[in-house]
């Protein structure tokens, strides 16, 4: 039963829930058409790849996923990663980029399924938020550079991120295309805050207002398509989309190509899962629900694999699609099942209506959705809070722009671990003093020395963090320097209240430190040792050879030794 979460909540499903889900499903399906096409084009694929990826994946996530409102389909960040993967020399040599795109879907699905089998849902915690933010900002900038020429009716120049190279293309701007882009932009901007404020003044309910304002994409596509169809404008359009449902096939199984595409598929799978789980958790918090990370791996894995079987691109949970689904009143994943059915009907009977959608309108839709993801200020905020995180975020962004998506992420993760190791190897150590007439102690180096009580014969230290092989040398050097500054000390007390573990290397070093202090005529004392650490230390030679005492708390140690 846990394998199919849908059976758990269907027991309490009501008719009123279906009415809400039906409306949300219709709205989501209509939105999925332009977005699916736009992200397929962004990935350098035919438009039907995005539509095919919006049918079976939605259905399979609906019966396997643990989020009630997450909408699965093509997303912008995965699209730019697909485009980068297909453009790489190694993948280009394989030929048949369409098959390579399908393989990326299948391989991403297999990777996620393997992660689910090995219960690796928490693995993504090793990718820090600054790295994710740096990656999304860099990917968003790449997308902007990629889409700008389409809004002007220009062929995309081969210039990567050099914005200056676009100036040579401006003389070829198509005025009709520019008009379509501006019209779509005005509509999308109006459907944001201005329309919401107008609906509030008219007394429309907040829920309905939110649902209406999320339909800006639909109105922009319909209006520009109408203008192209009946105005006979000379603009680039989507063109012939094959009518009918996708043909199911597994002809993408090619070991040689799978090996070449494995690195790209791995990154696409990880980023897709991170994006999906973040959105799912956000919505779960709003609705008071719970997300199962490993079940999400299973659901997203099968969604991607079924996308491949139906000839679609890799999929993930999309923020804008999910927000539309939620704002439209979705109560459960029945809304996505309805959306999948509506999309299937559209592909069979109404694919001809899609052909005249102008590419410039889709480019504007992507730009409006992507611009908020460029968060340069976040780098300065991260750096101000933690220099290591700020550097990792900045270098991830630059790596994505000037190296590649995969190398940028790898660089960010590497720098994050370097920063973590540095922090681990340099724990904060406080030289403590007592607040007069209290049993409370504070860092004497952060307060007025006349305000806190300190003692010439007592060196009182608190180590904030576990003591390990990575930091024991730093701790020994710190104690040695402090003893040089206080030659009259005859007692060293280490407050262990913040120490949660001691590894074997550190233990041996502490045993040697105890002997060295004994030779120097200084007693080595411990205070506030946690039970877990105390049990481990009782098994060692340190307690048997300790040249001092173990005190229940720091104040007891001070009162006994001064």
Helices and strands in order, then pairings?
Blueprint: H1 6-10, H2 15-42, H3 47-52, H4 56-64, E1 72-73, H5 76-87, H6 89-92, H7 97-117, H8 129-152, H9 175-190, H10 193-201, H11 206-213, H12 216-231, H13 255-287, H14 293-309, E2 316-317, H15 319-327, H16 334-349, H17 351-354, H18 359-370, H19 376-385, H20 387-402, H21 405-425, E3 428-434, E4 441-443, E5 458-464, H22 472-485, E6 491-495, H23 504-519, E7 523-527, H24 531-538, H25 542-545, E8 550-551, H26 554-561
Parallel strand pairs: 5-6, 6-7, 7-8
Antiparallel strand pairs: 1-2, 3-4, 3-5
What does this structure look like?
The chain has 562 residues and is mostly helical. The protein has 2 domains: 16-131 and 217-242 and 249-372, no CATH class; 426-561, 2-Layer Sandwich (Transcription Regulator spoIIAA). The protein has 26 helices and 8 strands. The chain has helices spanning 6-10, 15-42, 47-52, 56-64, 76-87, 89-92, 97-117, 129-152, 175-190, 193-201, 206-213, 216-231, 255-287, 293-309, 319-327, 334-349, 351-354, 359-370, 376-385, 387-402, 405-425, 472-485, 504-519, 531-538, 542-545, 554-561; strands at residues 72-73, 316-317, 428-434, 441-443, 458-464, 491-495, 523-527, 550-551. The protein has a 6-stranded mixed beta sheet. Helix 2 (15-42) packs across helix 18 and helix 8 runs antiparallel to helix 21. The relative contact order is 0.14. The model has no long low-confidence stretch (mean pLDDT 87).
